[in-house]
Amino acid sequence: MLSIKNLHASVEDKDILKGINLEIKAGEVHAIMGPNGAGKSTLSSIIAGNENYEVSEGEIILDGEDISELAPEERAHKGVFLSFQYPVEIPGVSVTNFIKTAINEKRKANGEEEMPANEMLKKIREKSELLEMDRKFLSRSLNEGFSGGEKKRNEIFQMAMLEPKLAILDETDSGLDIDALRIVANGVNKLKNENNAVLVITHYQRLLDYIIPDYVHVLMDGKIVKTGGADLALALEEKGYDWIKSELN
Amino acid sequence: MELKEKLISSFMAFEGQIDVNSDLYDVRTSAIKNFELKGFPSKKEEAWKYTSLNAVLKHDFTVFPKHDSAIEFKDVKKYFLHEIDTYKVIFIDGKYSSFLSQTTHEGLDVCLMSSAFTKPKYKMVMDTYFNQIANKDETLTSLNTAFAAEGAYINVPKSKVVDKPIEIIYFSTGQENALMVQPRNLIVVGENAHVQIIERHQSLNENPVLTNAVTEVFAQKRAIVDYYKIQNDLGSANLIDNTYIAQKQESHVSVHTFSFGGNVTRNNLNFYHQGERIDSTLKGITIIGGKQHVDHYTLVHHAQPNCESHQNYKCIVNDSATGVFNGKIFVEKEAQKTDAFQQNNNILLSEKAVINAKPQLEIFADDVKCSHGCTIGQLDESAMFYMQQRGIPKKEAKALLMYAFSNEVIESIKIPELKQRITQIIANKLGVNLGFDL
């Protein structure tokens, strides 16, 4: 589904990604782990189309199409979703209105009719229940005054509503207590099927107890230096990253 | 002939029509003298440092329109509120339109200044209030006073809660090649009374208009006044709005100014406190582009203890437009425990857009809380990326952000239909249709 080939990227002339290769197939869950400053969040931003980064080399191919020149919204319309580490606050626009707009913009871009109001309401009810969200929450301004945990839950709620092909979860576990972590992970697992894929970006292993990855990649200094199964995450949790560095040397 | 000379000679002609024996005659004469002395303000004056009237004053404005113009309701229907009933005081090229108006004398007076100037039954109110709070030194206010002939006269008696908003609309038809109008409004709100007022100036074609308006508002003890100014005029219209508000103890007065249209707009908004525990609110949203110029010049004069004032002005400037905010808070020695707040946030959308922001605090009391904050920035890029990531195209994302930026002010509009209309104007202004009411 997603194929990243020899991706190089920089911000303000500083090289951050130095040749990333990554293949993700439908139905798979991949995790990218790595120390702070390795380039994990940069990679997720670049896949989603953040224009602050300059891609100097390489390709990002989604379902056979190079998306590296597309605007963020065009990538979103093709099924890329990024759950932000720091979701922004938009006063005056309710969660419901925001998600309605997002869904209908996507449908419009794909040549579909707007979603009928009753279908929309039903879906909102269903997905908010899945994430155990309070109904009142939906009429509040987007992320305004939300706790860290509420913001993350709201991100996964939007993901559930948008049903992306490729979901990238950028440090979704940060700021979550154990109950919220369980609810969020449960939400992600319920949405997972053989036609979509999940890329989990995380510093810690604990989210991976709940969302079990098929592959774990270690990102260090702008490159994927090691790939393994779910057990690699446990080894990293236990031993840190230094042993990989020494292995590389 | 320069406009100043034209006005002064017009005054001589105007004198012929008025009663030279009335007190008002003296008021007018000294007013025109002040204008003759000072003329139109120039950028050399501190208060007009950022706003030039030079280009506007070059037009050959007609001071007394030659024609009487009529307009059909269907042509101007869109400028009125629809869903709720309102009182209406409507003027066309400075003259009262009884056809479009809906005035009243039942329980309150919603009528005309021309009546108030001439009919004996209004004399007491006029003697007590007319030109009492307006600044007699200010040259444009004086100019208005000299010529003041027509406008809205509103007198709300004690304890009266006015059942529906009052719309005051000044239409310009463009019958004259260039027209100068000088509306004069007087609003007296009695003890415990409550009124909502919407004021609008609207040109109906592209011929230049210069409006020099003066409004005096007197809020008695515990009165509540919500005043909304909609400035969404055509690009050929210029407006100088001089509003003076006197508040007695425990009264609450709010003025919201929505500046979206017009060529040069200057809002002189002045609040004077004449009692304790007064609450004053001044809020504004300005969204401009092209070569538009909007200047908010505010003054809150805290003269008594335990009063509050809240100012919040949001301004979004595109293209080569200019926004100005000059906010003065004056706290006299007696005004202990004053709580004065002022906020001014600006967004620049282009390289050539200009913001001049100048908070001025003069505090002579020692136990007060005065705060002011001013920001000038661009649209938040991380927020743009966030929305685009959710599939919302750039233009719509921008609109949502600008809406979010203005939201604090929009939220405090107390007339639901007006709130909806303002958000609709903002959406139109931003060229988006979001599928829901912003």
Feature tags:
heterodimer; A: 249 residues; alpha/beta; Rossmann fold; 6-stranded mixed β-sheet; 4-stranded antiparallel β-sheet; 9 helices; 38% helix; globular; B: alpha/beta; 20 strands; ATP hydrolysis activity (chain A); nucleotide-binding (chain A); ATP-binding (chain A); FeS-cluster_ATPase_SufC (chain A); ABC_transporter-like_ATP-bd (chain A)
Care to describe what's here?
Chain B: This is Iron-regulated ABC transporter permease protein SufD. The complex is a heterodimer of chains A (249) and B (438). Chain A is an alpha/beta fold and 249 residues long. Chain A has nine helices and twelve strands. A six-stranded mixed β-sheet of chain A has the order 6-9-10-3-11-12, sandwiched between helices. In chain A, strand 4 (54-62) and strand 5 form a beta hairpin. The two termini of chain A are 33 Å apart. The mean pLDDT of chain A is 92. Chain B is an alpha/beta fold and 438 residues long. Chain B folds into two domains: 3-275, no CATH class; 296-378, no CATH class. Chain B has ten helices and 20 strands. Chain B has helices at residues 3-15, 23-38, 54-57, 73-76, 113-118, 123-129, 139-147, 381-389, 394-410, 416-430; strands spanning 87-92, 95-96, 109-112, 152-156, 166-172, 179-181, 184-189, 194-203, 209-219, 224-231, 237-247, 252-259, 264-273, 279-288, 293-302, 308-317, 322-331, 339-348, 354-363, 369-377. In chain B, the strands form two sheets. Chain B has a ten-stranded mixed β-sheet with strand order 2-1-5-8-10-12-14-16-18-20, with helices on one face. The A-B interface holds A 45, 48-52, 71-73, 75-77, 80-82, 84, 86-88, 90-93, 97-98, 100-106, 109, 114, 141, 158, 162 and B 380-383, 385-394, 396-397, 400-401, 403-404, 406-408, 410-411, 434-436, 438.
